[in-house]
């Protein structure tokens, strides 16, 4: 462990906010991943900024995570600082028809707050198990809705330590991408524009979408959701299924039998198992159909 960096981190945050050699499998929905050399949980934008400044000054690598629900961390872990923007930065407020939330707020919590306040438009996101920050970066979406439809503006921190408020028109939100991802910005907060609605209707739509997820997705196993992006004109899950790969396994990782678009951690999978399974699935699909599958899941560490 880099003792100098540790001491510097403790000048920024309290001891309970700075963990060392923290197993990343405890912070990813895949439940795989080795230790992060430093794992920090900032409570304010100022703390985020100070940690980034420190890492840049010391040329020390850093990486932001939210709920780790779209993330595969190497078995060797990560030599650097993982900044988790999650429960410690998760306030949610309502200003008329706008939800103002910090990046660490869970989408499910925002959807529930919208429901409580009779606001409609966010039902699509209630079952996505990520944070608002993660959802803004990749323009998360489901069941015909996406963040692009509801974001009014996003407050980010640039690598140089500048705070920018980016209006929706300048976010360049596309399929699983945004300017935030391309520029390496850190999401601090966002404003979500919703509409007045009927509580009963909002609740019943949320329940309907939840039932769909439970019946279609292998939620009983750890995973990171859809493993591959949707190739234009196709569905990744259907291609994988048609290539005869339903239930195909490498070590403890498996193509879900319930939904071929999901790779699941069936039994004590390693990150290497998951990565090798993804490689073989991509190769088989390309061989069979000439379609290249691109991973949706982000990787951290050495593979
Ligand atoms: P993480 O996994 O922690 O991080 C993902 C990426 O975002 C990383 O590159 C990370 O650096 C970056 N990031 C995270 N927070 C910030 C921040 N504050 N600032 C800057 N960068 C940040 N996704 C969908 O779009 N639709 C779905 O329907 C869907 N269903 C899912 C179902 C299941 C069962 C699971 C496990 C996942 C599903 N996902 C889905 C994937 C995932 O939940 C989303 O991609 C979510 O937006 C990721 O958010 P996160 O906070 O977990 O991000």
How far is the first residue's CA from the last residue's CA?
21 Å
Largest sheet: 5 strands, antiparallel
Q: Could you tell me the radius of gyration in angstroms? A: 20 Å
SSE topology string: HEEHEEEEEHEHEEHEEHEEHEHEEEHE
Shape descriptor: globular
What hetero molecules are in the model? flavin-adenine dinucleotide
Mean pLDDT over the full residue set: 97
Uncertain segments of ≥5 residues (pLDDT<50)? none
- What strand line-up does the widest sheet have? 6-7-13-11-12
Please count the helical segments.
Answer: 9
The fraction of residues in strands falls at 25-35%
Structural class of the helix and strand makeup?
alpha+beta
By DSSP, the count of extended strands is 19
Helical fraction equals 25-40%
Question: What would you note in describing this structure?
Answer:
The chain is an alpha+beta fold and 303 residues long. Helix content is 30%, strand content 26%. It has nine helices and 19 strands. The strands form six sheets. A five-stranded antiparallel β-sheet has the order 6-7-13-11-12. A hairpin with a 2-residue loop joins strand 9 and strand 10. It is globular and about 55 Å long. The protein starts with a helix and ends with a strand. The relative contact order is 0.13. The mean pLDDT is 97. Bound molecules: flavin-adenine dinucleotide (FAD). Flavin-adenine dinucleotide is lined by residues 29, 63-71, 85, 103, 128-131, 133-135, 137-138, 140-142, 186-187, 217, 219, 223-225, 298. Residues 29, 63-71, 85, 103, 128-131, 133-135, 137-138, 140-142, 186-187, 217, 219, 223-225, 298 line the site of flavin-adenine dinucleotide.
